[in-house]
Amino acid sequence: MYWTLELASYLADAPWPATKDELIDYAIRTGAPLEVAENLQDIEEEDGETFDSILEIWPDYPTKEDYLWNEDEY
Hints:
The protein has helices at about 5-10, 20-30, 35-40, 55, and strands at about 20, 50. With about 70 residues, it is mostly helical. It has one domain (about 5-74). α2 (about 20-30) runs antiparallel to α3 (about 35-40). The N and C termini lie far apart (about 40 Å).
């Protein structure tokens, strides 16, 4: 399993919180590359576990805080 910024971006608008099966269904319905569904299938989960955000799936996913852009300045 590997995540890239491009692959993870297909889940940015996913309906969070969601189960693994819901995320796989979402990826397929939205036309995400096959690698996204394969990566989601490789995730180990407990029965009925829900994920609250992409950060629970890929902790290295960049957030707004990762950029040195200060919106208040502009």
